[in-house]
Amino acid sequence: MKRVALLAAGLLVVSVWAGMVSVGPAHAQQVSPPQEYIPPPQKAEEQRTPREMEELRADLMMARKRYSEAMAAYQEILKKEPKNAVLLNKIGIAYHQQMKLGEAKRFYDRAIRQDKLYAPAHNNLGTVHYNRKKYGSAIKAYKKAIEIRNDNATVHSNLGYAYFAQKKYEEAFLCFHRALVLDPGVFEQRGGGAGSLLQDRSVEDRRLFFFFLAKAFASQNNAERTAFYLKKALDEGYNLAVVAKDPAFVSVVNDPQVQDVLRAAGVAPPIIPPPGS
Q1: Which CATH architecture has domain 25-204?
Q2: Burial status of residue 106 (CB atoms within 10 A of its CB: 0-12, 13-18, 19 or more)
Q3: Domain map of the chain by residue range?
Q4: 75-98 pLDDT, tens per residue?
């Protein structure tokens, strides 16, 4: 019965390694657990080898936040596969979830030594640096992950946050824009993907941060999310008068939702003729 229950659980869509962190209080850069990691789909039961079942059991322990047990299970597999970068990365994540950043870093470094082209370990190493407010080192790690693999929205988002922490706002905007191109739901999701962690999402200047998210969504012609984040920026005290002058908002400024927010801010919404009119 235990084996049947385990296999059934393994077939569910499981959000693994939880630790959701929303944008934190103003002027607070909290050292928080990384956000949850959603693993790739598991193989069907009949296709799994005993070795794969062993790793699946450890993954399910992680999903249940039984980090010490999961680490012990991964370590048993690691004894037979000491150069397995994926396992080393998973052990690093288990330590990371417990905020044992030194141990997490040690395992991410080991994963990178075994496979220099394993992008998730570079990204996760960046999250350690970010939590320690070593933003330059975080940016270097994220850039390396992107150099290896350019299609992970999580990593572009993480890089944007690191630039934002350094007050390099235009660089941050470009990263947020790229993240949205790859995954329009990246700023609403709880997880990373393929072993890559979302870092702590606390920011110091919430007003400006929400404005930049609104701008990034405007660049994607997403009026609904633009209005949502403009409202958040307004609630934090941001002066939305700049929206009328910023060309990034041209495609959405006529939308009723956006205009409602601008009116609430006391800004006369500009009426921009549709293209070709």
Answers
A1: Alpha Horseshoe (1.25)
A2: middle
A3: 25-204, 207-264
A4: 999 999 999 999 999 999 999 999
